[in-house]
């Protein structure tokens, strides 16, 4: 799932009416950016070979290759798509959840239940990306001065960064450090895509964002520790798109 773009969805069903109805319902969701269709299990596997989707709406009972078999083959992919099973038969539920499916929806699929399932998928994708992101960058460090000498801090421990004249303040959970330089020069030292600029003087760690809020004319983000930081006007559109792509909640306060 790319930041601010939304999820890539593959709908697999051998019944044209069911397939097209799911397409119509999915097209109403702003967090779904791309919809592909497959009329059977074999077509689904070919589509996955070309590009693995973020989520598959997968019928179970199909004539050539069952949805269960498709899901089992998906588990062999390096990137594993989230699976939402759609079927008229509840007897498949146990097997579906043994495959760690995100959800199991009975046909005819209710619109409200589909939307809830997609929201859960977006949340699961966000958590998976955060875990992968932290694992990828867990060893990235910066050298900072602590008054006595220099020490290393992990970039993944920095909650946010605030410019203070000729220095950058690196804010961690229990302390902060000043490092000489500009926002641009510091960004070159940080792991790519770990932080996002929300203001000309502020960067935050992407996976530490809890929600985005509006209060009157003010737009701001809330971090996981409750800290709120103002969003600069020139950064607002990009940040709201980023938040929407990850399914981050947006709160409007009077």
Describe the structure.
This protein has 254 residues and is of the alpha/beta class. The protein has seven helices and 16 strands. The protein has helices spanning 16-27, 41-50, 67-74, 93-98, 111-137, 183-189, 236-246; strands spanning 7-12, 32-38, 55-59, 82-87, 103-106, 141-145, 150-154, 160-164, 167-171, 176-180, 195-199, 202-205, 209-215, 218-223, 228-230, 250-253. The chain has a five-stranded parallel β-sheet, sandwiched between helices. Helix 4 (93-98) links the parallel strand 4 (82-87) and strand 5. It is elongated, with a radius of gyration of 22 Å. The two termini are 32 Å apart. 27% of the residues are buried.
Q: Would you kindly provide a brief summary of this structure?
A:
This protein is an alpha/beta fold. Helices cover 32% and strands 32% of the residues.
Which keywords apply here?
254 residues, 32% strand, alpha/beta
Shape: elongated
Largest sheet, order of strands side by side? 2-1-3-4-5
Instruction: Give the SSE string.
Output: EHEHEHEHEHEEEEEHEEEEEHE
Cα(first) to Cα(last) distance is 32 Å
DSSP strand count: 16
Query: Helix/strand/pairing class, anyone?
Result: alpha/beta
Helix content: 25-40%
